[in-house]
Design goal:
- The protein is of the alpha/beta class.
- It has one domain: TIM Barrel (Alpha-Beta Barrel), CATH 3.20.20.100.
- Helices cover about 35% and strands about 15% of the residues.
- The chain is built from 10 helices and 11 strands.
- The strands form 3 sheets. It has a 7-stranded parallel β-sheet, covered by helices on one side. Strands 1-2 form a two-stranded antiparallel ribbon. A two-stranded antiparallel sheet has the order 6-7.
- Helix 1 packs across helix 2, helix 3 runs parallel beside helix 4 and helix 7 crosses helix 8.
- The longest helix has 15 residues.
- The radius of gyration is 18 Å and the shape is globular.
- The chain starts with 11 loop residues before the first strand and ends in a 5-residue tail after the last helix.
């Protein structure tokens, strides 16, 4: 029951067959907290950004540079992430699609607790609609599957929102091929957002399943490269060969890996934003891709 992507090319895809997005989006998770807060996997994402003006400027610059997919979540800064997106970009310009996620409780700065009760999911979607200032969410994703609630009940709540016209497309996050298949029996799933990069490759089967089924695969933490990012590592070698940065090579590898991959690198820096988007113009040779592919999975995720 997936609605396939059609007319794919290197720079753009059609999400769900009718929503065009550029193949590098922007993830807003890092637009939170202050400069002294933990970063990376340990980041709290608990409060709105200390420098709100700078965060708004980065979001606006992303759209100016052609980004059409903005990814956020109701769990980011307890709804503050969605409010920030709306403050920066509303009214959303033609072609700008906003994706958000629901289904995770934040009882403290260090806790991310899946909660998939259907009534809760529907309430959170209503709150997301208000914070984003829209009547329909372009892409609503289940942030995590709650193991204590039947998957059919969780997907059923999302389907109800779609049937009511409050959601255009639906996606899942951190799921297996089996969970994708089960969900797609209930309602079309157009995207899956799993952690995936050169060094973290446990979701290879999901990448391939998504490509075969015309489902967008949206990797988060797409630039993490582990030990392979060293100055003499394969990523740096390829970067020197093509006149790019290691981060750009990591993104180019993802774009080459599957025609339905849409990375959403996040950054608080406008210069890094421009660097990331320039990866769309890079082309790896098949030999360079194979060289990176062979060594990339050596570091466990």
């Amino acid at each position: 029951m997936s609605e396939k992507l059609i007319d794919t090319n290197h720079d753009n895809i059609l999400l769900g067959g009718d929503l065009p997005v550029r193949r590098i989006g922007y993830g807003t998770m890092r637009l939170a907290d202050g400069p002294d807060s933990p970063r990376g996997a340990e980041a709290h994402i608990w409060r709105p950004p200390a420098d709100r003006a700078a965060a708004i400027a980065v979001l606006r610059r992303a759209v100016e540079l052609g980004v059409t997919l903005i990814d956020t979540a109701d769990a980011y800064a307890l709804g503050g992430g969605e409010e920030l997106v709306a403050e920066a970009l509303y009214p959303y310009g033609d072609g700008v699609a906003v994706a958000t996620k629901i289904g995770v409780l934040r009882p403290s700065p260090t806790e991310w607790v899946p909660l998939g009760h259907p009534a809760y999911l529907r309430q959170q979607a209503e709150l997301s609609l208000r914070r984003l200032r829209v009547e329909r969410i372009d892409l609503l994703q289940l942030h995590r599957i709650d193991p204590n609630v039947p998957l059919a009940d969780q997907i059923g709540a999302l389907k109800q929102l779609r049937d009511e016209g409050k959601v255009r497309h639906l996606g899942l996050s951190e799921v297996s091929v089996e969970q994708l298949r089960e969900a797609a029996e209930i309602v079309p799933i157009v995207s899956v957002q799993n952690m995936y990069n050169l060094a973290t490759r446990q979701h290879e089967p999901v990448v391939d399943h998504a490509a075969a089924g015309g489902i967008a695969f949206i990797p988060f933490f797409p630039v993490a490269m582990g030990a392979h990012a060293g100055p003499d590592g394969p990523v740096a070698v390829v970067a020197r060969e093509i006149g790019a940065t290691s981060a750009q090579v990591a993104l180019a590898w993802l774009l080459h890996r599957s025609p339905t991959i849409v990375p959403i690198p996040g950054t608080t820096s406008q210069s890094h934003l421009e660097e990331n988007l320039a990866a769309l113009d890079l082309r790896l040779t098949d030999e360079q891709f194979a060289r990176l592919d062979r060594v990339g999975g050596d570091t466990p995720g």
